[in-house]
Automatic annotation (TrEMBL):
<dbReference type="InterPro" id="IPR001087">
    <property type="entry name" value="GDSL"/>
</dbReference>
<dbReference type="GO" id="GO:0016788">
    <property type="term" value="F:hydrolase activity, acting on ester bonds"/>
</dbReference>
<comment type="similarity">
    <text>Belongs to the 'GDSL' lipolytic enzyme family.</text>
</comment>
<dbReference type="InterPro" id="IPR036514">
    <property type="entry name" value="SGNH_hydro_sf"/>
</dbReference>
<protein>
    <submittedName>
        <fullName>Os03g0365900 protein</fullName>
    </submittedName>
</protein>
<dbReference type="Pfam" id="PF00657">
    <property type="entry name" value="Lipase_GDSL"/>
</dbReference>
<keyword id="KW-0325">Glycoprotein</keyword>
């Protein structure tokens, strides 16, 4: 009887693992954040982190596969050059450093560099043909909001400003927020903002991204319908 119970539990666990959609976090951006906020060298210290971060994601993905996961969603990182905290931290007097949306071009290029490396890893990783590895395009999903905020329920004026923050053109002056002045201004309409605190997105922004990931078009390949029902 005990053996049958163990076998039944093992079968149920395998069945759940087989039918579930596993989300591989949002790995990478915090590794880069830490170094940016410490004023580390981009060329010598931050960009060389990318292969190491990708390797960690690859190893974690392999662990999930070994545990029986069949459908794994691995997200890229968002356009860091459109994030208020980075716009405040890394200002440029050269207007050519910004795109027409007001985002830092070189920092968005870095985000795309990470995402390209991630997609290449997912294509080359060896796994059982019954396993589906899905790339989630957080970059494209967020950029769509930034480009057309009013079409997605956000306001044009708040696109590059933090909802809850204080100081500077982006309401995200980390030197003020983390210094002696610890107060911040609460926003009355968080659903109209993309950025919550200058670094993390609002619930409204994540809702838009989640919808685009679950139902398209921001995944490669599309998520199986059994995982979205």
């Amino acid at each position: 009887e005990a053996r049958r119970g163990v076998e039944r539990e093992s079968y149920e666990r395998k069945d759940i693992t087989t039918r579930s959609l596993f989300l591989m976090g949002e790995i990478g951006i915090n590794d880069y954040n830490h170094h940016f906020f410490q004023n580390r060298s981009f060329t010598a210290e931050i960009k060389p982190l990318v292969p190491l971060v990708i390797l960690k994601i690859e190893n974690a993905t392999k662990v999930l596969i070994d545990l029986g996961a069949k459908t794994i969603l691995v997200p890229g990182i968002p356009p860091m050059g459109c994030i208020p905290r980075f716009l405040n931290l890394l200002p440029s007097k050269n207007h050519n450093d910004y795109d027409k949306l007001g985002c830092l071009k070189w920092l968005n290029d870095f985000s795309q560099y990470h995402n390209r490396a991630l997609k290449q890893m997912l294509q080359r990783i060896h796994h059982d043909p019954t396993v589906t590895l899905i790339y989630a395009d957080y970059y494209g999903a967020m950029l769509k909001i930034v480009r057309s905020p009013q079409n997605n329920g956000f306001t044009k004026e708040s696109v590059l400003r933090a909802c809850c923050g204080v100081g500077g053109a982006y309401n995200a002056d980390s030197l003020v927020c983390n210094g002696n002045a610890t107060t911040s201004n609460l926003c009355t309409e968080p659903s109209r903002y993309i950025s919550w605190d200058g670094l993390h997105l609002t619930e409204a922004a994540y809702h838009y991204i989640a919808r685009g990931v679950l139902h398209g078009p921001y995944t490669e390949p599309a998520i199986p319908t059994r995982c979205t029902a």
